[in-house]
Design brief:
- With 102 residues, this protein is mainly α.
- Helix content is 50%, strand content 0%.
- The longest helix has 18 residues.
- It is globular and about 40 Å long.
- The chain starts with 43 loop residues before the first helix and ends with a helix.
Amino acid sequence: LNTLLSNNDMLHFDSDRIVGTSGDLEKAYLRLTSAPDPADFRPLDVLYKSLEFVLNKWRELGDYSYTCEQLKSIRQDLTVQGISNEFTVHVYETHGRIALEK
């Protein structure tokens, strides 16, 4: 990420931590090519709802590509915001479990 940003736009994850403001339950996973905009990321309370939504769709449809993309997007939102807690572990474990099921 640092190589994609100009020296003036350098992102420092410790001091420049963002808090997402998006309320979208579904969001496409996109590689970051610039400094993150809080409007593009979901806060923790929305991420809880998003995970529940995605898992319900997984149970209903079994669409691995969709589910994988959504879980990657949730993981990205957690990482960009520096969220590292039990929920983060749960998301990674869930993604791994689904991958093994497939």
